């Protein structure tokens, strides 16, 4: 073996070690990035589940409000007191003027 070929072999070995180190480092970076992306995906899944639940609650609240509005719509009529409450017309009643409404 001459000096030139042993120097060349050392150079090849050095290049091979550098490539292994670079690949190892890149592999570590890829694994770390994959872990970060997985954590982000889990976070987004939890947020989506929370928003789904919030939308469901909002729909339920909206339905309750719609039903309450329908129940209160009768108060817009002039005679909104139910007839069964006014069955005794002979009883004395007092009319109050509250805020301009009698």
Task: Please outline what is shown here.
The protein has a domain at 3-69.
What does this structure look like?
It is a single chain. With 102 residues, the chain is mostly helical. The protein has a domain at 3-69. The chain has one helix at 3-72. 0% of the residues are buried.
Shape: rod-shaped
Could you list the spans in which at least 5 consecutive residues all have pLDDT below 50?
A: none
The tally of beta strands, per DSSP, is 0
Q: From the helix content, strand content and strand pairing, which structural class follows?
A: mainly alpha
Helical residue percent band: 55-70%
N to C succession of SSEs: H
**What does the main sheet amount to?**
none
CA-CA gap between termini? 119 Å
Radius of gyration: 40 Å
Number of helices: 1
Q: Quote the average pLDDT.
A: 84
Strand content: under 5%
Topology of helices and strands:
Layout lengths: L2 H70 L30
């Amino acid at each position: 073996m001459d000096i030139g070929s042993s120097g060349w072999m050392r150079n090849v070995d050095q290049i091979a070690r550098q490539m292994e180190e670079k690949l190892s480092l890149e592999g570590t970076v890829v694994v770390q990035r994959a872990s970060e992306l997985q954590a982000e995906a889990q976070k987004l899944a939890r947020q989506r589940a929370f928003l789904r639940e919030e939308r469901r609650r909002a729909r339920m609240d909206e339905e309750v409000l719609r039903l309450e509005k329908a129940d209160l719509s009768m108060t817009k009529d002039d005679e909104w007191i139910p007839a069964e409450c006014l069955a005794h017309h002979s009883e004395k009643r007092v009319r109050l003027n509250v805020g301009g409404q009698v």
